[in-house]
Amino acid sequence: MLDTSSAIHTAIAGWELRFEPLFAGHRGFVFPCDAQGQVDMNNLSERALQNYLYARAMMGRETAWPRVQPSLMH
Fold first, then answer.
1. Which long-range contacts (CB under 8 A, 24 or more apart) does 48-51 make?
2. Which of 16, 17, 44, 55 could make a disulfide contact with 29, Cβ separation 3.0–4.6 Å?
C-alpha cells in the first residue's frame, strides 16, 4: 500500500519518486519530483514533508531505495 494522500500532485513534469515497502503489510510512499528525482520540499505539506524525511531515513530498513518513474496520477 502506497501513501499518496500526503503528497502534493502538482504537475512537476509528471514524475514521481516511489519508496516501495520492504515488508508485506507496510506502506510505501510516493512524492512528486522532477526527472532526476529531486523533490521540492518547500511545496510539500507538513505531513508530506514528515513522510518524505521518514521514507528517506528508512531506506533499506522499511522502504526500498526510491525509484523515479512517470507519474501514475498524470
1. 48/6, 48/7, 48/8, 51/3, 51/6, 51/7
2. 55
pTM for this predicted structure: 0.78
70 burial level (CB within 10 Å; 0-12, 13-18, 19+): exposed
* Rg over CA atoms, the chain: 11
The enclosing H or E element of 47 equals helix 46-57
**For 12, which DSSP code?**
S
* pLDDT tens-digit series, residues 17-62: 999 999 999 999 999 999 999 999 999 999 999 999 999 999 999 9
Distance of CA 57 to the CA centre of its chain: 12
